Amino acid sequence: MPNLSFEVSGLVDDEDVNPADVAEVLLTSDKFGAGWTSATDFSLLEEYCEEAGLKISPAYTSQAPMSGLLTMLARIGNSAIVWSDNILKIIPYTDETVGSYVPDLTVRYDLTYDDFIADPETAPVKINRKRQADAYNAVKVE
């Protein structure tokens, strides 16, 4: 048998791509994606990954839930998937400037004791835990 070599090219040029672009194509493609028609905003993830130098070359060879694929892309980009203002967004967790990417560190809430419904004489958040001796444990022994 002869030794044959093949070069395979995909839907993108011969270089790695931004995870935000992969997420966009996976959601919106009517050929192999979800056919998503709702609004998305992956601009923060795209800018963060570009500045951090995060590029990927995914090879999806079998079917998988879209939620799992998006979660994987968000983890690669150190980000969270958020549904806000009827738009699906992927927002990076970073709190430091990366290149020209500057995260939004605006404080949205300033919670005090008055914001919690509780007895004024007790702590606003109370945690009840069983004693370790009372916790259910199952150990299989062979």
In short:
This protein is of the alpha+beta class and 142 residues long. 22% of the residues lie in helices and 10% in strands.
Side by side, the strands of the main sheet go 1-3-2
> Could you estimate the helical fraction of the residues in percent?
10-25%
Largest sheet: 3 strands, mixed
Figure out the total of helices. Answer: 3
Q: Helix- and strand-based class?
A: alpha+beta
- What percentage of the residues does DSSP assign to strands (E)? 5-15%
* Rg from Cα: 23 Å
**Arithmetic mean of pLDDT:** 86
Oligomer: single chain
Overall body shape: extended
Output the helix-strand order. HEHHEE
Describe what this molecule looks like in 3D:
The protein is α+β, with helices and mostly antiparallel strands and 142 residues long. The chain is 22% helix and 10% strand. It has a 3-stranded mixed beta sheet. β2 and β3 form a beta hairpin. α1 (19-28) packs antiparallel against α3 (66-76). It is extended and about 80 Å long.
Break the fold down into its secondary structure elements and pairings.
Elements: H1 19-28, E1 40-41, H2 43-52, H3 66-76, E2 79-84, E3 87-92
Parallel strand pairs: 1-3
Antiparallel strand pairs: 2-3
